[in-house]
Amino acid sequence: MSNTMLNMNFSERVVIDTQQQPWLPSPAQGVWRKPLEREAKESGHTSSIVKYDAGSQFATHKHPLGEEIFVLEGVFSDENGDYPAGSYLRHPPGSQHAPFSHEGCVILVKLNQFDPRDLDVVKMNTLQTEWLQGIGGLQVMPLHEFEHEHTALVKWPKGETFQPHRHFGGEEILVLSGKFQDEQGEYPRHTWIRSPHMSGHYPFVEEETIILVKTGHLPVSAIQP
Q1: Contact yes or no for 171/2 (Cβ under 8 A)
Q2: Do residues 75 and 84 touch, judged by C-beta distance below 8 A?
Q3: Please, which residues bridge with residue 100 across strands?
Q4: Contact in structure between 78 and 11 (CB atoms under 8 Å)
Q5: Is 37 exposed, middle or buried (0-12, 13-18, 19+ CB in 10 A)?
Q6: For residue range 113-146, what is the model confidence (pLDDT) as tens digits?
């Protein structure tokens, strides 16, 4: 495994408490990141928590296989608009933009992970979008789906428990608020969890918790040694 590759064995479970990780400099002045998974140094499949200092900007760049963003704090901007905390964005394969932030922001960024046929442009303010009733006491806000891949917000009321289940095509979670739990541990705000194909768990919460969840997007067998 090269020294630039990070967490690219999709058969392994990965848990990162990103609040405990240091901010590392990016190629752009005033833009910092915490890498979660990375195929190559500045290209390929990449997921990161990224911080823009107030007034910072990133050069125009292309998304060969798409870009997916969730704004965690502040206001993220590009030449197409301003996106406050709670915004969910998808820029399709072949798109490009020049992002910046006047007041500063923190975002989750996932690069080059789209199916080439997944060409939907999505710009959602989840703070202004209605929750739908889910299983039990859960509330769900669908964000995007393409074939077997599904992305949504899930709101767990205090004390909620979910049935044990497995994840066909894996599961990826970022805890947005509260504290997510299962039989393997506790995951505070901004913890990132990636679970492989056909992994299973028994999740619950003790306090109201909101998570960003993606399922069905990981390979059914590991693609890296």
Answers
A1: no
A2: yes
A3: 57, 77
A4: no
A5: buried
A6: 999 999 999 999 999 999 999 999 999 999 999 9
What count of other Cβ atoms lies within 10 Å of the Cβ of residue 76? Answer: 28
Cα–Cα distances (Å) from 206 to 15, 153, 162, 183, 184, in that order, read 20, 18, 12, 13, 15
Spatial neighbors of 135 by CB under 8 A, at least 6 apart, are: 162, 163
Q: Which amino acid is at 102?
A: H
Look up residue 53 and give its DSSP letter.
P
| Tokens matching residue 93 | 């394969």
What is the spatial distance between Cα 171 and Cα 178, in angstroms, rounded to a whole number? 19
| Distance, CA of 2 to CA of 41 (rounded, Å) | 10
Lowest mean pLDDT among 42-46, 166-170, 172-176: 42-46
Token pair belonging to 172? 């990826």
Q: Which two tokens stand for residue 16?
A: 């990162």
Distance (Å) of CA 31 to CA 3, 54, 109, 178: 22, 9, 13, 27
Q: What is the rounded CA–CA span in Å between residue 74 and residue 80?
A: 17
Mean pLDDT of 154-177: 96
**Which position has the token pair 């890498």?**
35
14-25 tens-digit pLDDT: 999 999 999 999
DSSP state of 6: B
176: left (phi over 0), alpha (psi -120 to 50) or beta: alpha
